[in-house]
Specification:
The chain contains one helix and two strands; from the N terminus they run ββα. The relative contact order is 0.13. With 50 residues, it is α+β, with helices and mostly antiparallel strands.
Length: 50
């Protein structure tokens, strides 16, 4: 597993894409964009035919 903070400038990284933000001395926080992506993923999974 790669280090999210160390690879923050790499396309595809959740920080680079704007889904997470680094919070010093705390860790990471999901951004509004990240919440939207997460909810779209849930909707996409439920929309699949059985």
């Amino acid at each position: 597993m790669r280090n999210i903070k160390a690879n923050a400038r790499v396309p595809g990284n959740f920080i680079h894409e704007g889904y997470l933000e680094h919070v010093p001395y705390v860790g990471y926080r999901i951004t509004p964009l990240g919440r939207d992506r997460r909810m779209r993923g849930r909707l996409d999974r439920t929309a699949r035919p059985a």
